[in-house]
Write a structure and sequence with these properties.
By secondary structure, the chain is mostly beta strands. It is 1% helix and 45% strand. It contains 2 helices and 49 strands. The strands form 10 sheets. It has a 9-stranded mixed β-sheet with strand order 32-42-40-35-36-37-38-39-33, with no helix packed on it. Strands 11, 13, 14, 15, 16, 18, 19 and 20 form an 8-stranded antiparallel β-sheet that branches. The longest helix is centred in the N-terminal third of the chain and has 4 residues.
Length: 636
């Protein structure tokens, strides 16, 4: 229809009037509003309640208003017609439009009103339309209906289920017991509806779990009123009282949740923490945050020796429970080039775990130990809910000054700066003795070092330490400590041709770590022999000029004048001087050459000889003398 100008009218449907009927109750009647022979709206009026008349419209908007337009160029008239059920012919239908009654007669359960002039109405004007029916005589209808559910009632005649209510969430809870849960634990979250629902797809529920909220999937419950969502606690999840994130935390995720009538479920949840929320219904604590190592305390800077302990404290972000049933946790460290283990000692259920290593013989580290890794070693390190300790070591203390020395100092008796060396001979009697060690050493106050006279079986001098760097001898001598050595200055020169040895106890000499040099209690570990005294004698002192023989004896003697047996060939230089005597004309030599020669005392002997024999030149001269003196060095 072509519309040049439109006027709008709005109809309100009110049905307060009684339905009048003569013979039997009216089950229903219908009327429609027509415009230019086209139905604008059809209305069913049904009586179904015995104690009062209620007009139930099959179309929901009929309880409100609707509008239609009228073309000014057209005939402004509206035809209202309708049908009835169970109404006898001849009965009258009265329709009131905006206060004006219009009547029609029922024929064949149908009726039609004459055209209603609408031109008098203003644009947008509201007016009411009502209708009732009476028999031709005007008798009111009897309104008594069959008892609900009995014969001839609506319920008995039909099986009609009216379900326009969407299922809604009534409560969120969990079938998992109240408690604290760690990473890896599974918690079942239940969402209860007020009606049985059917699920397709995988709806999701988002939980408030700390820094990262977790979205968990539907797992079961379709066909019941309770849906289950499965939540696996992840590392880092935390919540003091587990709940969902908001009233809109439940989402279809492309699936559906419907009741049997096909009504979509209302997904709105109770405000978190309020009645019927997960937080209100359950006390679920989520602790997925694993304990960590905050810092590691290390031993104080020092040099540690045999049997001493290195203590390390592992400080954690929360209390850690240590279980050693399957093994004892250990902290790997490096001492020198060797890996060692500091084992757990104490601190379970606290934030400070003590690990200890006891220094073993042979351990040595001159530039600082190293802290490596922590391992459970078959045991466990967990927080109260069972989260494993993250064993990464953070903020480890500096260990460059944590030194280890279990190696005792040793004398390098046959090399280095030791003087004389072990088993040395022909040592000058006025010599100082220097003992060279392989590291810096200290004396122990009050302890002694003894110079032993091996040859004579006695003590030559005892030196008593007065500090860690000095000692005083019993004969006025002294000991001084240098850089890795001991210098012994005897108070009295040593005897010639005498064997000496050095002795000291187990606590006399130590290194800086307190490692003691092993005791020297024998006379062979470090010994030496001084130079013997060399003598020369002649017998007889006077010889006959004619064939007289004088024997010169060169001897080695010790400090006591006793023969000293050479342990190797000893060459001794002898010089001869004469008065007026002349070699060959006044005397001859045997075992000697010229006026100066070297005589040799061979190994195993303590002396050697040479002779001078007089030559008869017929001249007796008392000035003819021959003198032998020792000169030069003793050599092989």
């Amino acid at each position: 229809m072509f519309i040049q100008h439109q006027q709008w009218y709005t109809f309100f449907y009110d049905n307060p009037a009684l339905v009048k009927y003569v013979v039997k109750p009216i089950e229903s009647f219908q009327f429609s509003i027509m415009y230019n022979e086209t139905a604008i709206r059809a209305v069913d009026v049904i009586t179904s309640v015995p104690d009062e008349l209620k007009n139930v419209f099959t179309e929901a908007p009929l309880a409100k208003n609707f509008h239609f337009s009228v073309d000014d160029a057209e005939d402004d008239s509206v035809v209202v017609s309708g049908t009835t059920t169970g109404v006898e012919d001849g009965q009258t239908i009265t329709v009131n439009v905006a206060g004006t009654d219009y009547t029609a007669t029922v024929t064949g359960n149908a009726w039609t009103l004459p055209g209603i002039d609408m031109s008098a109405f203003n644009d947008g004007e509201n007016f009411a339309v009502t209708a009732d029916v009476a028999d031709a005589a005007g008798n009111d209808a009897t309104l008594t209906l069959a008892t609900p559910g009995a014969a001839n009632s609506l319920g008995a005649n039909k099986a009609i289920v009216i379900d326009g209510a969407a299922p809604a969430v009534s409560s969120v809870s969990s079938s998992t017991a109240n408690g604290t849960y760690k990473a890896g634990d599974v918690i079942a979250i239940t969402v209860q509806f007020d009606d049985t629902v059917t699920v397709t797809g995988t709806p999701q529920l988002t939980l408030e779990t700390g820094t990262t909220d977790r979205t968990v999937n539907y797992t079961s419950g379709s066909g019941s009123n309770t849906l289950t969502f499965s939540y696996t606690v992840q590392a880092g999840d935390t919540s003091a009282d587990l709940d969902y994130i908001s009233t809109t935390a439940l989402a279809l995720n492309g699936g559906t949740i419907k009741d049997a009538a096909g009504n979509d479920a209302t997904l709105t949840l109770a405000t978190p923490g309020t009645a019927n929320s997960l937080g209100a219904n359950k006390a679920l604590v989520i602790d997925g945050a694993a304990p960590t190592i905050s810092f590691v305390s290390v031993p104080a800077n020092a040099t540690y020796s045999l049997g001493q302990q290195l203590d390390f404290t592992i400080n954690t972000s929360e209390s850690v429970i240590v279980n050693t049933t399957g093994g004892t946790p250990q902290l790997d460290i490096t001492v020198g080039g060797a890996t060692r283990q500091a084992v757990y000692v104490s601190g379970s259920a606290t934030t400070a775990l003590l690990f200890r290593y006891t220094i073993l013989a042979g351990d040595y580290d001159s530039d600082g130990i190293t802290v490596n890794t922590l391992s459970a070693n078959g045991g466990t390190l967990k927080d109260a809910v069972g989260n494993d300790l993250v064993t990464t070591l953070n903020s480890v203390g500096t260990t460059s000054g944590v030194l280890v020395d279990t190696v005792a100092p040793a004398i390098t008796v046959s090399s280095g700066n030791t003087s004389p060396t072990d088993n040395a001979e022909r040592i000058a009697v006025a010599s100082n003795l220097v003992l060279d060690f392989d590291e810096d050493i200290l004396l122990v106050n009050g302890q002694t070092i003894t110079l032993v006279d091996v040859t004579n079986g006695g003590t030559r001098e005892v030196f008593t330490a007065t500090s860690t760097t000095a000692a005083t001898g019993s004969s006025g001598g002294a000991i001084a400590i240098g850089s890795g050595d001991i210098t012994i200055n005897p108070g009295v020169d040593l005897k010639t041709g005498t064997q000496y040895a050095i002795q000291f106890g187990t606590t006399s000499v130590t290194d800086a770590a307190g490692n003691a040099h092993v005791a020297i209690s024998d006379t062979t570990t470090y010994n030496f022999t001084t130079l013997p005294e060399i003598t020369i004698a002649v017998a007889p002192a006077n010889i006959q000029e004619s064939g007289g023989v004088g024997t010169f004896t060169v001897s080695l003697v010790d400090g006591n004048g006793n023969p000293f047996t050479a342990t190797e060939n000893v060459g001794i230089t002898v010089n001869l001087s004469t008065g007026s005597a002349t070699l060959t004309s006044d005397y001859t030599l045997s075992g000697f050459s010229g006026t100066s020669d070297t005589v040799t005392i061979t190994t195993g002997n303590s002396s050697t000889t040479f002779t001078a024999t007089g030559v008869n030149d017929v001249i007796v001269d008392p000035a003819e003398t021959l003198v032998a003196t020792l000169s030069g060095s003793v050599s092989e």
